[in-house]
Amino acid sequence: DTAVSQTPKYLVTQMGNDKSIKCEQNLGHDTMYWYKQDSKKFLKIMFSYNNKELIINETVPNRFSPKSPDKAHLNLHINSLELGDSAVYFCASSQVRAGHEKLFFGSGTQLSVL
Amino acid sequence: AQSVTQLDSHVSVSEGTPVLLRCNYSSSYSPSLFWYVQHPNKGLQLLLKYTSAATLVKGINGFEAEFKKSETSFHLTKPSAHMSDAAEYFCVVGGYNFNKFYFGSGTKLNVKP
Fold first, then answer.
1. Taking the CA atoms of chain A, what radius of gyration do you get in angstroms?
2. CB contacts, 8 Å: B32 with chain A
3. DSSP B104
4. Under a CB-based contact definition with an 8 Å cutoff, are residues A20 and A73 in contact?
5. Is omega for the bond preceding A66 within 30 degrees of 0, making it cis?
6. Chain centroid offset of residue A54 CA
7. Residue A1: its pLDDT value, please?
8. Of B101 and A15, which is predicted with more confidence?
9. Would you call B105 and A42 a contact, using CB atoms and an 8 Å cutoff?
10. Averaged pLDDT in 10-residue chunks for chain B of 113 residues
11. CA A35 to chain centre
12. Whole-angstrom Cα distance, residue B103 to residue B20?
């Protein structure tokens, strides 16, 4: 079973559209994240949720709205897509407890905005 | 504040020769440090982590890293490179309450036959 799964793997869309990426983890972790990886491979955190509560929001445009219906799911909705949103988006999870902290990543969603 | 600097954006080695990927960190407290590997078009996989136990940490696939507090370094090494090691490697420091992980800019390892 995949520990952190995100769908879709590839997403090609036009500017101005609205799209969603879904993420689910079956590890029982209490914290989930969204990271954006740009074309230079730089990974930047976007959001972090702990037990369905938003705890990190890193200067991300309001067009990006995460939603966590339960602690095993963290979805990312993007409104009015722009060319600059093209990137690979990674979902991750961790157990925020000393000795158990490490990130488990999904396989990524490659978003291409045309 | 925490931050990570990976000193080389690209490293190229021949198969069978040693690998050294350099990482320096900044942390206002005792850090947790990690190395992740990303193969082309794949997600990130944990190689190893340091969390204030032994300073020499052994990871998967023959990699190891040594935590040196005096040098604020956590360099990744492997005695003998394999073609399958070609990938992007990220050094990561864990935030104070582990709600946040700070990534270095990555080092692309190329392994020549």
1. 13
2. 101
3. -
4. no
5. no
6. 13
7. 59
8. A15
9. yes
10. 90 98 88 91 89 86 94 96 96 75 93 96
11. 6
12. 18
Chain A CB contacts of B89 under 8 Å are none
Burial track A30-57 (b if 16+ CB lie within 10 A, e otherwise): bbbbbbbbeeebebebbbbbbeeeeebe
Name the DSSP class of B83: G
CATH of domain A4-97+104-113: 2.60.40.10
Determine contact: A102 vs chain B, CB below 8 A.
yes
Per-residue confidence (pLDDT) for residue A25, from 0 to 100: 96
Does residue B51 contact residue A101 with C-beta atoms inside 8 Å? yes
Using a 10 angstrom Cβ sphere, with 0-12 exposed, 13-18 middle and 19 or more buried, the burial of residue A95 is middle
Contacts of A105 in chain B (CB under 8 A): 36, 43-45
| CATH architecture, domain defined by B3-112 | Sandwich (2.60)
How many other CB atoms are found less than 10 A from the CB of residue A18?
Answer: 11
Q: Residue A75: CB partners within 8 Å, gap ≥ 6?
A: A20, A21, A22, A23, A66, A67, A68, A69
Cα–Cα separations (whole angstroms), residue B89 to A10, A36, A43, A86, B37? 23, 16, 12, 22, 5
Radius of gyration for the alpha carbons in chain B, expressed in angstroms and rounded: 13
- Length of chain A counted residue by residue: 114
pLDDT, residue A74, reads 95
